[in-house]
Design brief:
The protein contains seven helices and ten strands. The protein is an alpha/beta fold. It has a single domain (23-222), classed as Spore Coat Polysaccharide Biosynthesis Protein SpsA, Chain A, CATH 3.90.550.10. The protein is globular and about 40 Å long.
């Protein structure tokens, strides 16, 4: 597993009438990277006066799908300030440089310790500016109504995040190499996976050119 993570949180879960905790589906937002290809922290890019990390985190909260965990690493203090006004849980991942797999494992470990009643988790990232609350709700509904334990978003003739992992696949995530993404779990269990259409998911920000396209796209939508 990864190195120790410094943990902090705000807010508490509602208890059921019998005093026990009802099942929850935490949303884990992976925001620990340094955005090396972009040359500046993508988490702090401004979209309509709102940082990307705040925009995605707010959408996750608005979905009311479950508690929200944000995994921070590079420039953690600055990124943390961008979401200080939101009732989220934060996991500071000291070993974020090891790769995306290490961040996934740190976030999952935090979620399991904080929410022993987690029946699934949703993994998301902070660089899909067109991601809205409704898509998180679709993932939750597919899990609750259809019982699908592996659910990915489908776009651009591929699939990816946001994606949901039922509890039975937590161990698979924990076995990821530090530099390995969660897509490998879907590839190993493709026959058990379900997919939710998310055409706008192909719009993300990795490079300056991507960012320029996003700004143009959002401006045209406003027009």
């Amino acid at each position: 597993m990864t190195g120790r993570a410094k943990k902090s949180s705000e807010g508490v879960s509602k208890r059921s009438k019998d005093g026990g905790e009802p099942p929850v589906i935490p949303i884990i937002i992976l925001a620990a990277g340094s955005s090396s290809r972009l040359g500046q922290p993508k988490q702090l890019l401004q979209v309509q006066g709102e940082t990307l990390i705040h925009r995605i985190t707010r959408s996750a909260l608005e979905s009311k799908s479950g508690p929200v965990v944000v995994v921070l690493g590079s420039q953690a203090e600055e990124v943390q300030r961008a979401i200080n006004n939101l009732p989220v849980h934060t996991c500071i991942h000291a070993d974020w440089k090891k790769g995306i797999g290490s961040s996934i494992k740190a976030g999952l470990q935090f979620a399991k310790e904080k929410f022993s009643n987690a029946e699934a988790v949703i993994l998301s990232v902070c660089d899909q500016p067109l991601l809205e609350a409704g898509h998180f709700r679709k993932l939750r509904a597919a899990f609750r109504k259809k019982g699908s334990q592996l659910i990915a978003s489908r776009y651009a003739e591929a699939f990816g995040v946001p994606c949901l992992f039922g509890k039975r696949f937590f161990s698979s995530l924990e076995k990821l190499r530090d530099d390995q993404g969660a897509k490998s779990v879907f590839e190993a269990h493709r026959n058990k996976a379900a997919f939710i259409s998310f055409p706008r998911g192909e719009v993300d920000v990795d490079t300056l050119m991507d960012w320029e396209k996003v700004q143009t796209l959002i401006a045209s939508n406003q027009g």
